[in-house]
Amino acid sequence: MIRRPRRLRGSLIALIAVVALTLTGCTGFATSGPVNAGLAAGDAAPPDFSFVPLKPQDGASPEDIVRGFLDAGNGPENNWAIAQLFLAPSFRDKWKPGAGVTVDDRSNRQYGKVVDGRMTVTVSSTATVDQHGGYTPSEGGSTPLSFSLAKVGGQWRITDAPNGVVLGADQFASVFRPYSLMYFDPSWRYLVPDVRWFATANAATRIAQELIDGKQSSWLGDSVVSAFPENISLDLPSVPISSGVAQVELRGPVLALETTTLDRMQTQLVRSLQIPGITDVSMSSSGTPLSAQPVSTASTRTDARALVDTEKGFGFLSSTGAIEPVPGISAGMTKLSPDSVELSADYSAAAVRTTDGAVVRVPARGDSKLVDVRPGLIAPTIDPYGYIWSVPGSAPKALRAYGPQGGYTETGGGWAGVSSVSSMAISRDGTRLAALVTLSGRPRVIVAGVVRNAAGVPQSIGTALELAMLPGAGIDLTWLDDATLGVVSDAGDEVSAMEQPVGGPGTTTTAPDGATTIAGGAIVRLRVGSELYAQRGSNWEQAGTGVRVLATQQGMPQ
C-alpha cells in the first residue's frame, strides 16, 4: 500500500507548514527560479531571534487562554514552559508537547463558543510530523481541536487539550528545522539520510534519542541498517555540548562491542549531529570515554559537467563544447540510438532506452546486451550493484531489476494502488526508489525502500511513501542529492520544476516550456528539445545546443 497524506482527526498530531527549506542539498531550487548550493539538513543557520510568547494575563477569558496557549507553541524552551502556564497545574504533567506540531494559516483558525467549559478550535492542516519527527504532507481539510477549561484560583486555565503544539506557517521555520539521521546501507558502504524535523532548542538531544533509542522511518524498513545494537541506549535525558563537543553517554554492554561497531556508531553520530555549535562527538559509558573514529564511506558526488549525447558523440560536455568520452561506454553508444541514458557510479555500465523502446545494458567492456523488450517501457535506472530497473509505464507491478549477469527479480509489489508510472530513479546509494506515478487518478511523487539479500540482489520494494501531489502530469525526476528529488511536471499551461525533499515540503518553480529531462548534481540541468539549460542566478540559461540526450549520473569513480 501507499502511505498517503490524510486528513487528521482526534488528538493533535504534529503538522507542518509547507516551508521552502533545503533538507540535504548539494543543489536546490530557489523560489524565484535559480538553483543554488544549499545547506545540509541541520546546517541551516539558526534565526537571529527567538519568539517570546506572552504569559497568561489576569482576568483573561476562556478564548483568550486558548488563543494564548496556541500562540505559545512558538516557544519550545524548557519543554514549552510558557505554554504550560496556560494549563491547570493538574494537567501540566499530562500534556505532551513533543507529540507533534500543527502548522496552519493562523488567520484561518476558527474559534468556537465556550459551552459548559468546552471549546473547539478548527484549523486547516498542511502536513504532519509525528512524535519521532517524521514528516507527512496533508491534502488539507479542517481539523477540530477540543479544549476543556476551568477556573483555578479565580483564573481560567485549560484542563484538557490535544497533545502537541500549534504553529503558524510564518513561525515554523524559526522554531523547527530538518535534520538528517544517518543510517548505513546494508553493505555498510554508504550513509543514508532519514530526514526528521525537531525544534532547534533541543535538536542535539532529539537527534541522539531517535538515532540511538529509535528506529529508521517505517517506509525505509530493511533498506537501511544501524550500528547501534538494540541493547544499547542513551543514558542521559539530554546531550550536553562542551566546547563544541556533544557528549553522548551510553547505557548497556558498550565495552563489549567490537571496534568496527563503535567506529560505525561514531560515524552515525558525527554525521547526524551536523548542527551549528557542534564540531565533534564523544561517546562514553559510565563516565569512561570510548575510543572510536569515523569510518570512511562511499561518496555520491557526480561530475559537475553535463553528460550528453550529441552528434559529436556521448560524453561529458566541456565549456568549449567539446565532448570528453566515457571509456568504453561512448564507443558502445555509437552502435545504438539512445533515447535515455543513466551511467553507473563506477562508469562500468550504462542503462539505456533506445528510440525503438528497448532497454539495453552498455558495458564499458564487451558488447551491449538487450535487457528488456516489453512494450511501453519508461527510462530505466541503474543501481550501485549494476542492476537495471525497468518497467512498462502502464504496468507498475511489472517492475523488474535485471542483474548484470542476466536474470531478473520482480520487485513491484510495493506500488499497490498505482495505475501508471512515468519516471523513476534509484538513489545513488541504492537504498530507495523514487517514482512519478498516477494514484487515485492524480499525479504524485512517491519513494520506497529497496530490500536486498546479503549479496545485494534486489528482493522487493517496501511500502511507498507519498511525498507530494503534482500540479500536472509527471514528466521526469532525478535525485538532486541524497535526500532531494528534482521533478519536472506539465500542467498544460505551464511546465514546472520542483525540488522535493524526501521528508519535507517541496518548492515549485517555472521551467522552460518543453522541458523533458532533468539531471541533478552540482548544477541542475534541463533538456528542452535539442537545447540544454542550466539554472544560474535567477534564470534558466541556455548551456548548450545539439543535445540529443541529457544523461543521468549515479556518481563517479572513487
What's the level 1 CATH class of the largest domain? Mainly Beta
Question: What is the helix content?
Answer: 10-25%
Q: Could you tell me the strand content as a percent range?
A: 35-45%
At the third CATH level, what is the topology name of the largest domain? Answer: Neuraminidase
Structural classification: mainly beta
Distance between the termini: 38 Å
Biggest sheet, open or closed, and with what strands and sense?
Answer: 6 strands, mixed
Report the strand count: 44
Q: Would you identify the regions where 5 or more consecutive residues have pLDDT less than 50?
A: 5-48
Q: Can you put this structure into words, describing what you see?
A:
- By secondary structure, this protein is mainly beta.
- It contains seven helices and 44 strands.
- The strands form twelve sheets. Strands 1, 30, 31, 32, 33 and 34 form a six-stranded mixed beta sheet that branches. Strands 14, 15, 16, 17 and 18 form a five-stranded mixed beta sheet that branches.
- A hairpin with a 6-residue loop joins strand 12 and strand 13 (191-199).
- The longest helix is centred in the middle third of the chain and has 14 residues, at 259-272.
- It starts with a strand and ends in a 5-residue tail after the last strand.
- The relative contact order is 0.13.
